[in-house]
Design brief:
Oligomer: homodimer
CATH topology of the largest domain in chain A: Rossmann fold
CATH superfamily of the largest domain in chain A: Response regulator
Largest sheet of chain A: 8 strands, mixed
Number of domains of chain A: 3
Number of helices of chain A: 12
Strand order of the largest sheet of chain A: 7-6-8-9-10-12-14-13
GO molecular function, one term (chains A, B): DNA binding
InterPro entries (chains A, B): HTH_LacI, LacI/GalR-like_sensor, Lambda_DNA-bd_dom_sf, Peripla_BP_I
Largest interface: A-B, 66 and 67 residues
Shape of chain A: elongated
Pfam families (chains A, B): LacI, Peripla_BP_3
Organism (chains A, B): Devosia rhizoryzae
Keywords (chains A, B): DNA-binding, Repressor, Transcription, Transcription regulation
Structural class of chain A: alpha/beta
Low-confidence stretches of chain A: 1-6
CATH architecture of the largest domain in chain A: 3-Layer(aba) Sandwich
DNA sequence: CTGAAAGCGCTTACAG
DNA sequence: CTGAAAGCGCTTACAG
């Protein structure tokens, strides 16, 4: 009965003694690429097994100055896009033998304490995947010599690496789609107004519509939050000039907007109103919603993110890099279809106008 | 231009030199409760600020034998219940000054490599919040002297701490509700058949129905996966003896089942079929689904989990503890309402039969 | 309250 | 290929 007492944890010295070799030999056995004879190695491995030895990653970190830990800051996970990203990150980092220290659940912009924690753990890299964290934080990290990648956002100054999709082109594509669908009046429900994703998507939408001589766009703000999106939708649908076509800045909000449209205003989708979203995530795919939505290729975005990090960690060079991926406008049933421009690809319907 | 070069990181010795005190004094300044004069403390703090010093948590861990890291193993995040839990855990652990090392994105039962990682980082505690991990793993951890809490599941032998809700009572309550609603035929769509949640919910359901002389229950398996739940629903709805009332083992599956019912079989909910779920999470609340569902009090469950962990860490005693919370059957529109037993509480409709 | 010193469990030149 | 030794950046008795 040794239950209840925390085992001391067996050390390399104990293994060394048991195997009749030096502590160095034990260390080399567990260091890939270290020079060690197979015979010694076998002896060590055998003893390690008997004693239940595992190298202490903490001690290793201290001396190598590498923690093999990547911090991921993700303020909220309600939007299924983020859990998706997180799962993919878990996979990708594990494949590189890195671990994921998650910072989530604080809902503020007060990121200084977070930063402090990151620094104390000497993380090897940082992924900022939340739209509501300060740009300062990221630059602070970068200037501390820790590789940082912004996921799905950028900062004004582009001193920090980022991975995004062509949000402006996405907004524009959506405008083209809605115009091609024969809609006459347009609206936009914004996300966080000072986020780069919202800014770019909105700008592209405005430009796209302007290209067809349309300059009036009904506008409400949902701040990427479900309740706020509902409120925005109520405002939008109460307008005397309720638009025929609505671009909602992400799917998380679009779902809420559709529910308000159907169950509070009795609107039929897409007969009474066409709705297009962004992210192509979770509920967007479900039959109840079937949202026509710009996709963001999560898997490739995550790959790029980890790529940049690994590059910077191994090279020691921190040079800002910006990887921009392409999305597709996946066509489902939440918006009227245009007569042309819809093609089949990978079993999905995609909007690809000829002139693009 | 020092960009590109990883800064060495300033140490306590450097701060000591700068402040003209011993390295011990610096350490004491950053150790809450250590005996240090306010004067020395101020000097140290000033120097630390100038130099940008932060204690190295890795070095601290090595000597204190406390990493202040809790590992959370959560195989998949698709079911919004888990991101919810994760966010809450992030908050609760941060409040205790602990950090969250997340293991996710591997979709198998092969948890041995995970275990190895956990051990190498000398985590202070482990939360197992995924239904697909082996019971072995958890006992292995426990026997290694690391506090482990199973979240939302139990094992046969109850040597490992757990936090759950009364799943059997929940299943029973659902049976009572459906019987009270006047349904005559019943079905069940199971989650992972060997998971404790599924076993208990199913058992309670069966017992509850048996109490009313009902022993025939149409049965399909959805394994807590969306595509499998869809397949199960198709089987269920194709039966000549399609049940009037269906209990789906969690909301994640219930959403999929509702979509299949409505859009593939043209069934009206709840007119043609009543559906009840479990978890009371995310989409359950949305108007498109409005699922009548047993709630699991995530916040309180998380509090209990962190509580148990903190107790065991500080006391050094690892004694299995089982906390069981109560849920409520939250009544919405996915199932026919009984004439009596529905009460209002906290602005929600709850099913609470008198004789319970 | 303060400092000198030992030591946490490793990695890695260095010399053989 | 191997071992003795230094050292990573801290905490914490110990003595004053």
């Amino acid at each position: 009965m040794d239950g209840g007492v925390k085992k001391a944890g067996v050390t390399s010295s104990q293994v060394a003694e048991h195997a009749g070799v030096s502590q160095s030999a034990v260390s080399r056995t567990f260091t890939p690429g270290a020079s060690i004879s197979s015979k010694t190695r076998q002896k060590v491995l055998a003893s390690a097994k008997v004693l239940g030895y595992r190298p202490n990653a903490i001690a290793r970190s201290l001396i190598t100055n590498r923690s093999r830990i990547i911090a991921v800051v993700m303020a909220y996970l309600e939007n299924l896009f983020y859990p998706d990203v997180l799962e993919e990150l878990g996979r990708a980092l594990a494949a590189e033998n890195y671990h994921l220290l998650l910072f989530t659940g604080f809902m503020d912009r007060d990121s200084d304490p977070v930063f402090d924690q990151l620094m104390q753990y000497r993380v090897d890299g940082i992924i900022l995947a939340s739209t509501s964290l300060s740009s300062e934080l990221s630059e602070e990290c970068a200037s501390a010599g820790i590789p940082v990648v912004l996921f799905n956002r950028t900062t004004e100054r582009d001193a920090v690496s980022s991975v995004t999709t062509r949000n402006r082109e996405g907004g524009k594509r959506i405008a083209e789609f809605l115009v091609a669908g024969g809609h006459k009046s347009f609206g936009y429900i914004a996300g966080l107004e000072n986020s780069s994703t919202n800014r770019d998507r909105h700008q592209g939408y405005v430009e796209g519509l302007a290209g067809h001589g349309i300059t009036e766009i009904a506008y409400e703000v949902g701040n990427y939050s479900r309740p706020e999106a509902e409120a925005a939708a109520r405002m939008m649908f109460s307008r005397p000039d309720r638009p025929e076509a609505l671009f909602v800045a992400n799917d998380h909000m679009a779902v809420a907007v559709m529910d308000v449209a159907r169950y509070e205003f009795g609107l039929k989708i897409p007969e009474d109103i066409s709705i297009v979203g962004y992210d192509d995530v979770g509920p967007a795919v479900w039959r109840s919603y079937g949202i026509t939505s710009m996709s963001q290729p999560v898997k490739r975005m995550v790959e790029s993110t980890v790529d940049i990090l690994m590059d910077q960690i191994t090279s020691g060079e921190i040079e800002a890099e910006h990887r921009i991926h392409n999305g597709e406008l996946v066509v489902r049933s939440s918006a009227r279809h245009p007569e042309t421009g819809i093609v089949e690809a990978d079993g999905r319907k995609i909007f690809r106008p000829k002139d693009v």
